[in-house]
Specification:
CATH topology of the largest domain: Rossmann fold
CATH class of the largest domain: Alpha Beta
Structural class: alpha/beta
Shape: globular
Order of helices and strands: EHEHEHEHHHEHEHEEEEHEH
Radius of gyration: 19 Å
Strand content: 15-25%
Number of domains: 2
CATH superfamily of the largest domain: NAD(P)-binding Rossmann-like Domain
Bound molecules: NADPH dihydro-nicotinamide-adenine-dinucleotide phosphate
């Protein structure tokens, strides 16, 4: 079997177009422009790239983008004061604090100081609890993007066996909650899992979120399974820098029914879902109906 490629780049463009459409409608019918504030502390080069591209895409879908760049020595009190200001600013519907933060800042404290209704990353403890209890929440962008692609490919996920490899708070755990919410039978695997190949071979859906280049070989994949590769790993091969996932794409594509590539799979969906979450937060803040198909 040669797997169908799930084109995350094209899917993300479709999601962004849908968001742009809804934003235009909000402006025209309600005079409201959704606003996303992104806070960056320090000069981490990868974070700077992410923040720049988030700002660019926010503007492209017609939303207001507010960038706050603070220097690496910013005190916790100053950062919390900025977040408090953004929490109380009616023009700001979504707040994202770019992680990782410099070591002297308490990440949990900072994230939990964001108004949960504006927490478009879905990392606030209230949103984690709401998702875990199946209630309306802000859903973390990367797992939301994975869920959208899976729903688009399969329609219903009900009754499918899903394995999520990785149990981080930002990907693995929320991904497992979302799959459970869609009535999959979910296994969460991690570094202490016994006989991981056997666990993965049982799965109709494999979500790999480990951070180890190409660690899942094709012969772990059940014939016809759907493989979602969240991993982004920079490696050097044949003297060239390359991005690869957590799945060995070439061998997995020979057995899977469908697979996301790296790059061009989950990555582009993450920013598209950030924009979708900002739109959702704006609609909720204004007691307007939520956009269809853009939330869990
Ligand atoms: P973390 O490092 O926080 O978590 C990695 C998880 O993988 C842990 O739960 C760990 O288990 C598990 N793990 C490590 N080694 C093994 C192993 N040998 N077998 C089974 N499980 C193992 O990573 P993240 O969740 O933050 O990210 C995972 C990957 O996804 C990274 O490559 C990251 O770059 C990428 N990513 C991509 C995004 C995108 O937009 N596409 C967004 C976010 C992340 P344990 O808990 O036992 O240590």
């Amino acid at each position: 079997m040669v797997a169908q490629v799930i084109d995350g780049k094209a899917f993300a463009a479709k999601v962004r177009a849908q968001v742009a459409n809804q934003v235009a409608k909000l402006k025209e019918e309600n005079g409201i422009t959704p606003g996303l504030a992104v806070v960056l502390v320090g000069e981490d080069p990868a974070s700077q790239v992410y923040v720049r591209s988030k700002g660019k895409m926010t503007v492209e879908v017609g939303m207001n983008s507010y960038e706050h760049k603070l220097d690496a020595e910013t005190s916790e009190d100053d950062l919390l004061a900025l977040i408090d200001k953004l929490n109380n600013d009616p023009a700001v519907h979504g707040i994202l604090v770019q992680l990782p933060l410099p070591k002297h800042l308490n990440e949990d404290l900072v994230i939990n100081s964001i108004d949960p209704a504006k927490d478009v990353d879905g990392f606030h403890i209230s949103n984690v609890g709401l998702l875990g209890t199946g209630q309306k929440s802000m859903v973390p962008c990367t797992p939301l993007g994975c869920l959208m692609m899976l729903r688009d490919h399969h329609g219903s996920l009900s009754g499918m066996d899903a394995v999520v490899i990785g149990r981080s708070n930002i990907v693995g755990k929320p991904m497992a909650q979302l799959l459970l919410g869609d009535s999959c039978t979910v296994t969460i695997a991690h570094s202490r899992t016994k006989d991981l190949p056997d666990v993965v071979r049982r799965a109709d859906i494999v979500v790999a979120a480990v951070g180890r280049p190409e660690m899942v070989p094709g012969d772990w994949i059940k014939e016809g399974a759907t493989v979602i590769d969240v991993g982004i790993n920079r490696i050097e091969r044949d003297g060239k820098n390359k991005l690869v996932g957590d799945v060995d794409y070439a061998s997995a594509a020979e057995r899977a029914g469908a697979i996301t590539p790296v790059p061009g799979g989950v990555g582009p969906m993450t920013i598209a879902c950030l924009l979708a979450n900002t739109l959702t937060a704006c609609c909720r803040a204004n007691d307007l109906p939520e956009p269809e198909g853009l939330t869990a």
